Amino acid sequence: MDKSGEYIIALKKSKPEDKETVENWVDLLNSVGLKDIANEPVTSCCTIKP
Questions:
Q1: b/e per residue 20-29 (b: at least 16 CB within 10 A)
Q2: Which DSSP symbol is given to 5?
Q3: CA-based angle 19:1:45, to the nearest 5?
Q4: Measured in whole angstroms, how far is the alpha carbon of residue 10 from the centre of its chain?
Q5: pTM of the complete model
Q6: What is the DSSP string of 8-41?
Q7: What is the pLDDT of residue 1?
Q8: Cβ neighbours of residue 18 under 8 Å, at least 6 residues apart?
Q9: Are 42 and 9 in contact (CB under 8 A)?
Q10: Burial of 3 per CB tally in 10 Å (0-12, 13-18, 19+)
Q11: How far apart are CA 41 and CA 16, in angstroms?
């Protein structure tokens, strides 16, 4: 995933109700074929290691 995808994920976690963030999140998930889960809440279950 590129840096813009990581940025959108961080925004979604910190501002889940922000309209622009939600739109970017949905666009990101749609672009990788995950539109069915685009409106599901994001939870912190894992730590991403570089």
A1: ebbebbeebb
A2: H
A3: 70
A4: 7
A5: 0.68
A6: HHHHHHH-TT-HHHHHHHHHHHHHTT-GGGTTSP
A7: 61
A8: 11
A9: yes
A10: exposed
A11: 8
Judge whether 8 and 24 are in contact, CB under 8 Å.
Answer: yes
Cα–chain center distance at 23:
10
| Pairwise CA distance, residues 33 & 49, whole Å | 24
Whether 21 and 15 have beta carbons less than 8 Å apart is answered as: yes
As given in the structure block, the two tokens for residue 48 are 């991403």
**Structure confidence by residue, pLDDT tens digits, 5-50:** 788 888 888 888 899 988 988 998 999 999 998 888 877 666 667 6
DSSP, collapsed to helix, strand or coil, labels residue 4 as: helix
